[in-house]
Amino acid sequence: MAGLLSILGALWTVYLVALGIFRLYFSPLAKFPGPKLAALTLWYEFYYDVVRRGRYVFHIRHLHEKYGPIIRINPYELHIADPDYYDTLYASTSSGEKRDRWSWFTKQFGTPESMFSTTGHDQHRVRRAALNRFFSTASVRRLQPLLNERAQSLIGRFRKAQASKNPIPLEYALAAFTNDIVREYSYGQSDHYLDKDDWGSEYYDAAVTIAKSGNLMKQMMFIFHFISSLPPWLQAKLSPALASSLRFYTLVENIITGIKSQSGSGSTYEHLGHPTLFHEILKSNLPESDKSVSRLKDEALIVVGAGTLSTSWALCVAIYYLLVSPNLLSKLKQELKAAIPDRNQPIPLAQLEQLPYLKATVQEALRMSNGVATRLQRISPDKHLIFPDSSGKTWIIPPGTPVGMTSVLLHHDESIFPKSNEFRPERWIENKWLDRYLVAFSKGSRQCLGMNLAYAELYICLSSIFSRFGSANTDAVQGVRDEGDEGVLELYQTTIKNVEMASDCFIPMRKEGTQGIHICVRN
């Protein structure tokens, strides 16, 4: 037995040495610059993203400064830092170019049948086609009554906080707003987190836990499968946070089962006043295999999670910077006052979208909040990609190679966005050409499906709040008020540390241990 183990150990050592030699010297990616240790093993990325908790994105920026605009960041993947290459990598459907996703990356949320995890270009195109019209500009504008109603519920909670003098946890509050909307639109039902005393904080915490676990799950997905297979009481002992997340997986599965049962029984949902995503998918021409409970459950988890966290964080960023920048808030309030003479009479979304300073504020909030903070790899399955760098050298990227770019690096490229750490909406008004470099929703055939809904939520939420509330005087800044304002908003125990991105957990995460943004509503 000892001899057999020695032989197996020797064979394993030979295999590892041979694998290392291949990766360093004979791999199709061996010619690309980057640290040798990153080319050798995924443990390099593991150190920065798991041990140091989502810091690889910042290290990648450093690697680009050292090695140039194209680098090898692990044994299989390249990363590019060139804003003008974005449209080539993230090619549009009309270009005729195919773009696959990388399965190693998409597995991290445990939703293998979702559109997010659909790696093949053609299958993704078919699945997306069934959903596109529900997130079109026209469809979202027809949804405005729901958005207005939820915005008024949020304003109602602000009034209650004004009376009680209790601070509002803004991340919970705005996630409740976005979650109520996306769930109502998706299922025809929601838990109305805006009406709950705790703002539905359990869902938000569970969704953030899932996001934070992604860096580990990419490397060790067996942990997720192992914990998922355990009884709930044991899950709670091993990982209370992950156990809470898994309860939502089961809850969503039950909702989808109910919707499918209603669809089969001929039940209707027209009384809602708007279509619902998953009822309509079941009526679509998708193959029956794409209408299974397990696949639609995976789709629902991604649609609702993405539709909750990214938009609510962009709203948080916008509100923080407006409250600490009275000159910016003053410009926005002047524009809103002129456009909305009666605060209790909503104006059409199409008109809100035409307000220059509101639009610029939304764009700057998206830039500073980044949308998805991590790199989004694309694979050209059947053609070489050609990348000419600034030195004049042309790099030929083999077909099948995962290649990523990162919104955080592009949005803070000083050659495109000078003083990129400053929140300055004016940059979008002064330079219309900047629009092409806003990639919070990515671009191309796999661009974020819910982009139009997210924009609508940003326009309606910000206009609803700041047409009614100003900002308070503090030691640092002079407040901004209009005649007729219901009150003022004041940051509570909140600094820039509560807003700055400290780590990449698919979405941006603030510094560990900070309490998050809180506001008080004053008379």
TrEMBL record:
Binding site for heme: C448
Keywords linked to the UniProt accession: Heme, Iron, Membrane, Metal-binding, Monooxygenase, Oxidoreductase, Transmembrane, Transmembrane helix
Topology versus the membrane: Single-pass membrane protein
One GO MF term: iron ion binding
SUPFAM superfamilies the record matches: Cytochrome P450
Localization per record: Membrane
Cofactor(s), by name: heme
InterPro entries per the UniProt record, alphabetical: Cyt_P450, Cyt_P450_CS, Cyt_P450_E_grp-I, Cyt_P450_sf, Cytochrome_P450_monoxygenase
Transmembrane portions of the chain: 6-26, 300-323
One Pfam family of this chain: p450
One GO CC annotation: membrane
Family per record: Belongs to the cytochrome P450 family.
Record protein name field: Trichodiene oxygenase
Organism (species): Talaromyces atroroseus
Native organism taxonomy: Eukaryota, Fungi, Dikarya, Ascomycota, Pezizomycotina
